[in-house]
Write a structure and sequence with these properties.
By secondary structure, the chain is mostly helical. The protein contains 19 helices and no strands.
């Protein structure tokens, strides 16, 4: 521990969160960039499918363009598996920003759809990295009282990025929007070197004094011995695990708490992709062309973007007040009913051939509610990732989960177009399927998830192992 000579270093008796907030801000710049990448897809595919498109494409090209990102997401998750514990959380975060810069540079010069494929592939690498490393990093630098809110900020900024894409892309050329969106990604790469490394990673590498210094900086006070001892205690099992990834994989499935945590997050990922949420983010403007006769599909997309942002902001007020389990149950039931409503609307439209264009508000309201609660579940997943994985399996488990997310995203993006357009079953069948899947998952999740509100990592692990 540091000696008495250091005690004038941090003057506030209660500490200061200045460095914690600065680190969080830099991370939110990154998640803003990721949100922009996600939001770019929906309005851009409408532009690309127009007769005067600067890059002519087919429906098959569109689904491949979408799948390029999700396929690369699996690669990004695989890279995480080796990078997180080798080069550290901080420099893995830096590696997240570089493919985003490359992606926008390629889109700026793109003259063919094949260049767009490569650009979106680079984007997917960053997505695969970000949604594993960022919640992990924030979970490790945040104090217990701010952990839930800090995790929620990731959802707010990513959804702000989606909204910005929805607003800007339809009014400018693809080259111009790429040039604008290149700016925040460059800002992130410039800012990242100034944030501290995770104290967990430093302690894991035996750099105890550096870990203590980082904790002092993050908490703004000289006495962090209690928190440092908690970190060292949690790392004991990590030190015992010398068998590499295969040994870690064995620990995930042989130890009850690790197995339960892995299944919980896997179910969250499945829910995220098979609830209609990702489909609306990717194909929202295309779907609105089929449902909204009383307003433009552009307006419908903007409404979705606003709802995404409001949903993320609302999580700040509810996640640490209501707790995780009530949010899971309520959100899941409502999401299922919304999918049932949307599926019923399309069934009447496509199979019964009734003219229900005047009832466009019914699916619009259902879409809005679905987006609101699905996004709440997505934000909750980011928080849970940072909370429930034990330190010895956190990196490996998160990477495997990320690979699963990329696989599910690829399946959903290709399967939705295949069922609704290629097989000509219409949009009702996928939404009915989403309804059934979400209700099954929520029932299982509600019985598996322990309440983690206000709990330390050690308390959460005890609950998982009961």
């Amino acid at each position: 521990m540091n000696g008495d000579g250091d005690k004038g270093k941090y003057m506030s008796p209660h500490g200061s969160k200045t460095w914690e907030y600065l680190a969080i801000f830099v991370c939110t710049v990154l998640t803003l960039c990721i949100g922009i990448l996600f939001g770019w897809n929906s309005p851009t595919i409408v532009l690309l499918l127009k007769p005067n498109s600067p890059i002519p494409v087919t429906i098959s090209d569109i689904s491949t363009l979408t799948a390029s990102l999700t396929l690369a997401q699996m690669l990004g998750s695989f890279i995480n598996m080796f990078a997180i514990d080798k080069i550290g959380r901080k420099y893995t975060l830096l590696f997240c920003g570089l493919p985003i810069v490359a992606s926008w540079c390629l889109i700026i010069v793109a003259k063919s759809v094949s260049v767009l494929y490569v650009a979106r592939f680079f984007s997917g690498i960053s997505v695969g990295l970000v949604f594993i490393i960022t919640p992990m990093y924030l979970g490790e630098i945040s104090s217990i009282k701010t952990r839930g809110i800090n995790g929620t900020l990731l959802g707010i900024t990513s959804n702000l990025g989606i909204l910005l894409s929805y607003i800007i892309v339809p009014y400018l050329t693809i080259t111009t929007t790429a040039s604008i969106f290149l700016i925040p990604s460059i800002c992130f790469v410039i800012l990242l070197p100034f944030i501290p490394e995770s104290p967990y990673y430093l302690a894991m590498k035996g750099k105890i004094e550096e870990a203590e210094n980082v904790l002092e900086k993050l908490r703004g006070k000289i006495d962090v011995s209690e928190e440092l001892n908690m970190i060292l205690e949690s790392l004991k099992k990590k030190d015992e695990n010398k068998g590499g990834n295969m040994s870690t994989l064995k620990e995930i499935f042989m130890i009850k708490g690790n197995r339960r945590a892995f299944l919980i997050i896997l179910l969250f990922v499945t829910c995220n992709h098979f609830s209609g949420f990702i489909t609306m983010i990717i194909y929202g403007q295309l779907i609105f062309k089929e449902t909204l006769s009383g307003m433009s599909h552009y307006t419908g997309n903007i409404i979705v973007g606003i709802v995404l942002l409001l949903s993320s902001i609302s999580m700040i007020f509810f996640v640490d007040k209501l707790g995780r389990k009530p949010l899971i149950f309520v959100s899941g039931i409502i999401i299922g009913f919304c999918n049932l409503t949307i599926g019923s609307f399309f069934y009447v439209k496509d199979y019964i051939n009734e003219n229900i264009s005047t009832y466009f508000l019914i699916p619009l309201i259902a879409f809005i509610i679905l987006i609101f609660f699905s996004n709440s579940m997505s934000n909750l997943m980011l928080i849970m990732i940072s909370e429930i994985f034990s330190i010895e399996v956190k990196a490996f488990s998160s990477c495997v989960i990320g690979i699963a997310g990329g696989l599910f995203g690829t399946i959903v993006s290709k399967l939705y177009i295949f069922i609704s357009i290629y097989l000509n079953y219409g949009h009702s069948v996928p939404f009915f399927g989403f309804c059934i899947i979400i209700w099954i998952i929520i029932f299982i999740l509600f019985n598996l998830v322990p309440e983690t509100k206000g709990k330390t990592f050690q308390e959460i692990q005890r609950k998982l192992n009961k």
